[in-house]
């Protein structure tokens, strides 16, 4: 959970301790907001009756004659189940959080930054850009939301309004607007952006380490881990201009598609290397061209104290944005699809589990959207997972096709260092006017805050947001090579951010295109509109095809000789137009494949293409330990001859095997410890199966060793903001160091006149872990278990943080529980090794498995439940099953839905 939620909301409710102190009173208030899910209700604007059928988990399956009626009903249902969540998020995305929670510094800071980004303004422009049909669906959805709001007081919409009302003025919510839905897409894109942190961290690491080779060790190339990309060499490189693949890949009806324009062997319009290892883009941007030269020229510049403060201040300012979907270690997903030749049903099976923030209520809302008669006018017959506040299904299946999404991690953001003088900034040899606009932040119970937003051609000046203006005062003359201008005032330095999501796009169109897709061509069409966030798409069709498609608006960067790398890995000089983006990758150039001869596709945030995918997609990826484990499990079962079922796919989703343990346990057992207290934990590792099971004592001890190993190895050399979280990149870093017993990072710089080696640090980690387990759990290793340390503590998105009075938190938050899994494990219940806690920070926000032979045999589960009301039976009624790795039946056909009905609500005109 973000720091903002804990502070802004927590302090707002201190005065309401008595409100929830009496449990029965709290329940009475909570139940007042529960909706009626049976009987009848009238909605203005409907053309005919709409049936809302809810199953045993309260999941709504909506049946209508017209598409607009379908989405009008979905808006009504979303407002029933989760209006406060919707309202909270629209305040965040509009930069109006202080209007809701009051005079809180963190809320005002968030509003300043989001107003600077202008998410709402971009969404307003998108409403005019999307198709007329999408506009119609968005307006119908808004009408449905507003129909539920009509004649209901805030306390009837959510218990949260009652709690907030004790300290701030709570007005009737504003009517829902289609732009509210589109603005949510900006929050989704922000949390799923690309190498944003790595770009800043490289510069910060250099300013501390003063050695480019050491920086390179902390950001290994993807291939160093030895894990496979999504597409193989033959899938990535077409044999000729026909787009057909070489080496036997792509043997299905579509063939494996090439990644170069017009079937060339390149990723760029000039026709470059298909794997992206040489160049990409309109001007042939080199992936690492000039890196060594750049590093040498940066000596001294990146050591400048003002620059270091600017970089740190920029990170601090950007951290003010509340986390909506996920952020940091653990953000990712698993997806894979297996051809029918290897399944028991004879048709493809697809699995997906997005790894996002785990909160209450969970991020996803399950729904079925069914036209009574599927036609051109009413083309929807789909079910899956969506976001409350936005119509349609984002991930799921229809009668003909299933699709899953994972974060692709394409590099879609760049920091630019700007020279600013007054209200002008430098472009080439000229000073041109900054674009400015005025914003006023209304503060509930406080005085308005005026904000002046200034922007360059690249984007808004992020440094303007900081009150101390540290980022705007950086002296960075040595950062780039530029001509001397004697007698000319060069101005101060400011930092701007260019990001693809700050241009209006058609992602909303893509959502409805996914919902009605039937084949690979439909997926391509949808992907071409899915501008942000860039996601891997895997799909399976009813007629037996499987495939992969990369979407997204990906910027092209020209190759510029000089001291600053031009591939997007480092901040760029804004005054030199040569560093500007030169355009975007064409949709037809994006990697894709169908029916690979291997018989399956795994997309789990690893590199898309061989060679690391080249700079036209990204330079920083997940290092592929999860994807490689999935590949191993799939290959082993295929080799055994046993056909896959949906149960097999669920078992893979819950696999707890640790690549960390596979790499380290053998080395740890070679360390000689006295046969006493210190070696008690080490002995547990001897017969351990390397799985992070919640009941495992060895797993608990190993996690503590890993935490202490990272602490002893890196915290003495890196700024606190870069202390290892312990995920896949740090596994790749340590993997590269293990055979170098005297690597500089093994040395503890805090010990004067002593140079530690690898084995000394490993010994220290083993002993420290033993002591940690004694303090946190028990002196007796027989009492240890991973689940005792690795707790899932779901917090309400607004009223669940530590600053909230205990009775309120207890009411709003589901009970904590120990879980299996861990960072960079297929069952990716991540934790932050730098935090001192083993608690879950992110994980599978849902799990789904779809069998194209029998859609009613598919399964699904979310981390909490459908409802956002704590008093509802469906607030967390899926949590226990989720934690145990179990799933629920997913009815789809009308017969299956009717058989599962427990509540029916008829909406009438």
TrEMBL record:
Mind telling me which InterPro entries this protein's record contains?
Answer: Ntn_hydrolases_N, Pen/GL7ACA/AHL_acylase, Penicillin_amidase_A-knob, Penicillin_amidase_dom1, Penicillin_amidase_N_B-knob, S45
Compositionally biased tracts (Low complexity): 275-289
GO MF annotations, alphabetized: hydrolase activity, acting on carbon-nitrogen (but not peptide) bonds, in linear amides; metal ion binding
Cofactor info, note text: Binds 1 Ca(2+) ion per dimer.
UniProt binding sites for Ca(2+):
199, 411, 414, 563
Alphabetized, the UniProt keywords read:
Calcium, Hydrolase, Metal-binding, Zymogen
Q: What is this protein called?
A: Penicillin amidase
Similarity annotation: Belongs to the peptidase S45 family.
List the catalytic residues: 333
Per the UniProt entry, what species is this protein from, by scientific name?
Myceligenerans xiligouense
Q: Which domain of life is it from?
A: Bacteria
Q: State the Gene3D superfamilies in the record.
A: 1.10.1400.10, 2.30.120.10, Glutamine Phosphoribosylpyrophosphate, subunit 1, domain 1, Penicillin Amidohydrolase, domain 1
The UniProt entry, under SUPFAM superfamilies, shows: N-terminal nucleophile aminohydrolases (Ntn hydrolases)
Q: Which cofactor does it need?
A: Ca(2+)
Q: Which PANTHER family match?
A: ACYL-HOMOSERINE LACTONE ACYLASE QUIP (PTHR34218:SF4), PEPTIDASE S45 PENICILLIN AMIDASE (PTHR34218)
- Biological process annotations from GO: antibiotic biosynthetic process
CDD domains the UniProt entry points to: Ntn_PGA_like
Q: Which residue windows does the record flag with biased composition (Gly residues)?
A: 244-274
A Pfam family annotated for this chain is: Penicil_amidase
């Amino acid at each position: 959970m973000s720091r903002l939620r804990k502070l802004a909301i927590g302090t707002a409710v201190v005065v309401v301790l008595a409100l929830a102190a009496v449990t029965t009173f709290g329940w009475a208030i909570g139940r007042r907001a529960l909706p009626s899910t049976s009987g009848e209700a009238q909605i203005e604007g409907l053309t005919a009756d709409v049936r809302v059928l809810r199953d045993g988990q309260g999941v709504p399956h909506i049946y209508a004659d017209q598409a607009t009626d379908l989405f009008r009903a979905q808006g009504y249902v979303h407002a029933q189940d989760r209006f406060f969540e919707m309202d909270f998020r629209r305040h965040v995305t509009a930069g109006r959080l202080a209007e809701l929670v009051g005079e809180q510094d963190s809320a005002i800071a968030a509003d300043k930054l989001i107003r600077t980004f202008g998410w709402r303004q971009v969404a307003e422009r998108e409403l005019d850009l999307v198709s007329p049909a999408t506009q119609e669906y968005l307006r119908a959805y808004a009408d449905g939301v507003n129909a539920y709001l009509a004649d209901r007081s805030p306390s009837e919409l959510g218990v949260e309004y009652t709690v907030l009302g004790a300290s701030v003025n709570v007005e009737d919510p504003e009517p829902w607007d289609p732009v509210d839905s589109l603005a949510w897409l900006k929050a989704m894109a922000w949390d799923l952006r690309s190498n944003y942190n790595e770009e800043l961290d490289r510069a910060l690491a250099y300013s501390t380490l003063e050695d480019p080779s050491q920086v390179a060790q902390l950001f290994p190339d993807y291939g160093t881990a030895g894990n496979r990309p999504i597409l193989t060499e033959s899938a990535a490189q077409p044999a000729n201009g026909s787009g057909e693949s070489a080496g036997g890949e792509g043997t299905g009806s579509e063939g494996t598609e090439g990644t170069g324009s017009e079937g060339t062997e390149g990723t760029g319009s000039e026709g470059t290397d298909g794997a992206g290892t040489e160049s990409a883009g309109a001007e042939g941007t080199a992936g690492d061209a000039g890196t060594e030269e750049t590093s040498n020229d940066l000596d001294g510049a990146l050591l400048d104290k003002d620059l270091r403060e600017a970089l740190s201040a920029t990170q601090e300012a950007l951290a003010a944005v509340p986390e909506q979907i996920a952020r940091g270690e653990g953000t990712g997903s698993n997806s894979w699809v297996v051809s029918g030749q290897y399944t028991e049903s004879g048709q493809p099976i697809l699995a997906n589990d997005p790894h996002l923030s785990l909160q209450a209520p969970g991020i996803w809302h399950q729904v079925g959207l069914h036209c009574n008669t599927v036609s051109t006018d009413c083309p929807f017959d789909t079910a899956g997972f969506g976001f409350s506040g936005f119509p349609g299904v984002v991930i799921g299946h229809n009668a003909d096709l299933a699709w899953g999404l994972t974060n692709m991690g394409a590099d879609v953001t760049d920091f630019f260092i700007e020279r600013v003088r007054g209200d002008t900034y430098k472009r080439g040899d000229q000073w041109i006017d900054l674009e400015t606009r005025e914003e006023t932040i209304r503060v509930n119970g406080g005085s308005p805050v005026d904000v002046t937003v200034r922007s360059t051609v690249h984007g808004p000046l992020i440094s303007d947001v900081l009150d101390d203006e540290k980022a705007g005062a950086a002296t960075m003359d040595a950062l780039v090579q530029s001509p001397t201008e004697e007698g000319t005032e060069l101005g101060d330095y400011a930092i701007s951010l260019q990001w693809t999501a700050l241009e209006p796009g058609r992602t909303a169109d893509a959502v409805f295109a996914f919902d009605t897709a039937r084949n690979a061509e439909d997926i391509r069409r949808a992907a071409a509109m899915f501008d942000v966030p860039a996601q891997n798409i895997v799909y399976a069709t009813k007629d037996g095809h499987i495939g992969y498609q990369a979407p997204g608006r990906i910027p092209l960067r020209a190759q510029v000789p000089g001291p600053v790398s031009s591939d997007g890995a480092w901040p760029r000089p804004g005054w030199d137009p040569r560093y500007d983006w030169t355009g975007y990758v064409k949709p037809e150039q994006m990697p894709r494949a169908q029916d690979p001869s291997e018989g399956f596709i795994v997309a789990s945030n690893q590199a898309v293409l061989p060679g690391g995918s080249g700079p036209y997609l990204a330079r920083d990826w997940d290092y592929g330990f999860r994807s490689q484990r999935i590949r191993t499990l799939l290959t082993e079962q295929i080799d055994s001859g046993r056909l896959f079922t949906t149960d097999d796919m669920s078992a893979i989703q819950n696999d707890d095997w640790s690549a960390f343990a596979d790499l380290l346990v053998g080395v740890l057992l070679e360390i000689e410890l006295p046969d006493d207290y210190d070696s008690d934990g080490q002995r547990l590792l001897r017969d351990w199966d390397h799985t992070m099971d919640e009941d495992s004592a060895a797993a608990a001890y190993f996690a503590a060793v890993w935490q202490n190993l990272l602490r002893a190895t890196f915290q003495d050399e890196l700024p606190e903001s870069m202390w290892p979280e312990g995920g896949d990149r740090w596994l790749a870093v340590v993997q590269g160091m293990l055979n170098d017993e005297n690597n500089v990072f093994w040395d503890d710089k805090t010990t004067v006149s002593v140079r530690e080696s690898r084995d000394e640090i490993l010994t220290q980690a083993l002993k420290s872990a033993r002591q940690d387990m004694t303090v946190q759990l028990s002196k007796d290793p027989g009492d240890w278990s991973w689940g005792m340390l690795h707790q899932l503590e779901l917090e309400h998105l607004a009223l669940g943080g530590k600053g909230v009075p205990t009775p309120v938190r207890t009411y709003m938050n589901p009970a904590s529980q120990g879980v299996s899994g861990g960072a960079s494990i297929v069952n990716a219940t991540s934790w932050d090794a730098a935090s001192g806690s083993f608690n879950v920070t992110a994980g599978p926000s849902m799990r789904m498995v779809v069998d194209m032979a029998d859609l009613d045999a598919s399964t699904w589960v979310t981390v909490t439940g459908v409802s956002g009301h704590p008093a509802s039976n469906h607030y967390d009624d899926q949590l226990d099953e989720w934690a145990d790795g179990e799933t629920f039946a997913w009815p789809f056909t009308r017969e299956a839905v009717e058989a599962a009905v427990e509540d029916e609500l008829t909406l009438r005109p």
